């Protein structure tokens, strides 16, 4: 038991890198222990040849040399089509017949004295690599000898596809370059052409296996541990390892949340406690998922079709939680700056504070969006062929493409509008605006909309494109001072001078008047029934101006009612003419 613990400790401390993989003796199963080849080169590089193809033809590659290791007359496999040749390799390897699987390999770059064991080991290594890392699209592998796949260009015409002599069925990255897995159609002398896995692909097997082969932990597990026991065609020890990995990931995630909430959350420093509470949940998920991904990718390694989707899902979840953590951190940082590093935005003439807060708000949205794009790009890069998505969307004129285009246009339009608002500053957070007949403070400028808090505590949500394209009044752009007018209809016989004197008296008695605009009473309109008197007052901000306007209007109306027994009140006059009968 002590020896086993030491072996596990050695693996945990010294081998946490690389992607491990191993394969099975039956479909989607794993080879174990002594059945797994080592990562040493099967054939010395100095013995490898440099040319595998010495001729050219339209529908196949001509070879003037062929490795004579196999007796071609004894080969009882179908290699006439690309699908048949690859099926022979996959199915034979699944059944443990790696020598038969090697019939589908082009060994022309191998030395003539290669042994049967070495050939079988190469086939086993290639199967392990493909089984873990390559998702074969069998629909793209032709069942015709010429490798041709019929193509239909429209509903009325059908055209045959172009014959092929080389077909790519997978790709892996090896030391910052891509290694392509390829099937090739070759012809030797007078023999019929046949399909094999290319010599260049075979040449890279050892290098790929060293990178993507099984981990040391798999190789160190003793044979007598009963690892052949399976559940749902998966070794039982892997299922147990999966459960243990889940427990470890959960404990680390919970411990991360505990530290952030209970320890850092109770810090006397406000910014530490604020950050800790906001980051606790995303940090816990990220640490837990990252731990699970590392454990399963380096220690408990799954293979087969299940593994491709499983590891991709784990990586996507890890990147998603990591992106969430970074976005939450940036949001907490900008929120703290907005709350603690800016002055009162509603204070008199505090334009600089409103400008800084607006820039912080827009910057937070832009940086968050950039982080989101980076995370989404990393996630989408895990799907093979995603780089062709844009071409596919443009090539198809379907309804989905149109909907996506329209949606993206609206979103990007609002994002650009937000940047325009940050640069041109038609409105800033804290400004008092009149928008669509509603006036209130700009409470927030979001990623795609602006929120206006009205005087009666309602919220008006307006898309940023609308803010840019439509006119509105900004009462705080060049200062908060405002002039208000008081309009009153009176009778023609009113004494205007007395009203003017009374208004000046009332204005000077009010503490809300800023004394910036002289008292003014003017007759601005006359009708057949009354005249319109306008009095002007000013205050240092719109709220005081509104209160002053209402106060003076009330007192002026009261004064006019009492002036000369209400003589100045507007009246409706009716002319009454006497009839002839009444005169008689």
TrEMBL record:
GO cellular component: membrane
Chain coiled-coil ranges: 489-516
Claim: Transcription regulation is one of the keywords in the record: no
GO molecular function term, any single one: mechanosensitive monoatomic ion channel activity
Location within or outside the cell: Membrane
Superkingdom field: Bacteria
All copies of domain Mechanosensitive ion channel MscS, residue ranges: 411-476
Signal peptide: 1-28
Ranges annotated as spanning the membrane: 236-260, 272-296, 308-327, 362-383, 389-408
Cytoplasm recorded as keyword: no
Keywords: Coiled coil, Membrane, Signal, Transmembrane, Transmembrane helix
PANTHER family linked to this entry: INNER MEMBRANE PROTEIN, YNAI-RELATED MECHANOSENSITIVE ION CHANNEL
Protein's name according to its UniProt entry: Mechanosensitive ion channel
Protein's organism: Gillisia hiemivivida
């Amino acid at each position: 038991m002590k020896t086993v613990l030491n072996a596990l400790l050695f693996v945990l401390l010294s081998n946490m890198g690389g992607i491990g993989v191993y394969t099975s003796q039956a479909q989607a199963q794993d080879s174990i222990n002594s059945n797994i080849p080592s990562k040493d080169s099967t054939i010395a590089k100095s013995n490898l040849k440099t040319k595998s193809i010495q001729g050219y033809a339209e529908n196949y590659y001509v070879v003037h040399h062929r490795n004579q290791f196999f007796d071609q007359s004894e080969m009882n496999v179908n290699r006439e089509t690309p699908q048949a040749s690859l099926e022979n390799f996959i199915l034979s390897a699944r059944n443990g017949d790696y020598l038969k699987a090697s019939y589908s390999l082009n060994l022309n770059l191998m030395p003539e004295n290669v042994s049967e064991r070495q050939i079988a080991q190469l086939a086993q290594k290639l199967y392990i690599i493909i089984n873990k890392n390559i998702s074969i699209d069998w629909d793209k592998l032709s069942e015709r000898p010429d490798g041709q796949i019929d193509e239909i260009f429209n509903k009325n015409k059908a055209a045959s596809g172009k014959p092929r002599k080389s077909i790519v069925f997978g790709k892996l990255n090896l030391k910052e370059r891509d290694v392509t897995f390829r099937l090739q159609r070759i012809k030797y002398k007078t023999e019929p052409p046949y399909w094999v896995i290319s010599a260049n692909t075979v040449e890279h097997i050892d290098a790929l296996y060293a990178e993507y082969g099984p981990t040391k932990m798999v190789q160190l597990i003793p044979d007598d541990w009963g690892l052949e026991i399976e559940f749902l065609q998966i070794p039982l020890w892997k299922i147990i390892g999966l459960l243990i990995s889940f427990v470890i990931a959960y404990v680390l995630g919970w411990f991360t949340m505990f530290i952030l909430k209970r320890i850092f959350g109770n810090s006397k420093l406000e910014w530490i406690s604020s950050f800790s509470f906001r980051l606790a949940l995303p940090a816990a998920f990220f640490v837990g998922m990252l731990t699970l991904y590392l454990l399963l990718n380096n220690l408990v390694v799954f293979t087969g079709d299940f593994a491709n989707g499983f590891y991709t899902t784990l990586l996507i979840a890890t990147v998603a939680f990591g992106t969430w953590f970074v976005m939450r951190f940036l949001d907490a940082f900008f929120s703290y700056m907005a709350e603690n590093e800016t002055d009162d935005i509603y204070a008199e003439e505090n334009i600089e504070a409103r400008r800084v807060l607006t820039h912080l708000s827009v910057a937070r949205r832009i940086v968050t969006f950039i982080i989101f794009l980076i995370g989404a790009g990393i996630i989408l890069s895990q799907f093979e062929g995603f780089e062709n998505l844009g071409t596919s969307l443009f090539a198809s004129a379907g309804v989905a493409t149109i909907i996506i285009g329209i949606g993206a246009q609206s979103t990007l339009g609002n994002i650009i509008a937000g940047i325009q608002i940050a640069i041109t500053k038609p409105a800033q957070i804290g400004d008092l605006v009149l928008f669509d007949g509603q006036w209130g403070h700009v409470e927030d400028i979001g990623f795609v909309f602006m929120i206006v808090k009205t005087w009666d505590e309602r919220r008006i949500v307006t898309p940023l494109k609308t803010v840019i394209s439509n006119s509105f009044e900004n009462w705080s752009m060049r200062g908060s001072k405002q002039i208000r007018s008081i309009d009153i209809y009176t009778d023609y016989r009113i004494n205007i001078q007395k009203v003017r004197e009374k208004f000046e008296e009332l204005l000077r008695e009010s503490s809300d008047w800023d004394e910036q605009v002289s008292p003014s009473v003017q007759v601005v309109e006359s009708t057949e029934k009354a005249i319109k008197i306008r009095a002007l007052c000013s205050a240092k901000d719109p709220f005081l101006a509104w209160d002053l306007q209402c106060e003076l209007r009330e007192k002026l109306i009261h004064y006019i009612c009492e002036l000369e027994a209400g003589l100045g009140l507007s009246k409706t006059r009716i002319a009454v003419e006497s009839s002839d009968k009444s005169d008689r």
